[in-house]
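Structure ticket #2291
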Amino acid sequence: MLHNIMLLTLAPALLYQGKRVRATTPRLPEASGPRAGQAGKGPSLHLLILGDSAAAGVGAKDQSIALSGQLVDRLSQHYQVHWTLEALTGRKVADYLPPPDATTETAASRLPSCDADIVVVSLGVNDVTSKCSVTGWLKQVDRLIAGINQQYAPDRILFTAVPPMERFPVLPQPLRRYLGERARAFNMGLARRVGGYPNVDLIGVQFENGPDVMATDGFHPGPGGYRMWAETLAAHIGPPA
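Resolution: structure written out below.
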């Protein structure tokens, strides 16, 4: 794989650039506001958003203009939405998995206690920037899907694809290209993996260019990026049958 070749040949430069980006990039707070609630009228829909800093709304001042608020706003036009947001900056897939020696009864112990007809998962960026291999990550994804299905038995699990990291303005070259290639490898593996599950879909978001799309840190979505993400998810979920 190209990203493995780049790692071997450019390791010192990539390591230096990674440390510099972490040291100099401003750390934006997670969006303020409620992380659970009810909105709209119509058939009941229980929504769980699970994930990392993007799911937590970093890059938006308030949850109302982050992913959770914009998605609930669109879904509430057709449903009575009961929603829960469980997200934290830095989260990886492994953070939602039980310990390796967990029994079947505790397999979902790190997931929130709520009902969920639809589970939106935003995870992968922190795995891409870690030392985790694609193969190892996909095994973790299998365990996460099993835990979600065990705890909630949802109608749909919607994995958001890892964003195109080669477009992140904050990343210098060659780090930007390396992480972009690695993100593509993760997404290719994820696309193959979720195809084996009848209730799991991979959702790609076609971000447009524009000053409102990215946050000021050059790493997270801005309100415009969250709007496009919410529109894509809402269109996939659709109105009641």
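Closing remark: Strands lie at 36-39, 44-51, 80-87, 118-122, 156-160, 200-203.
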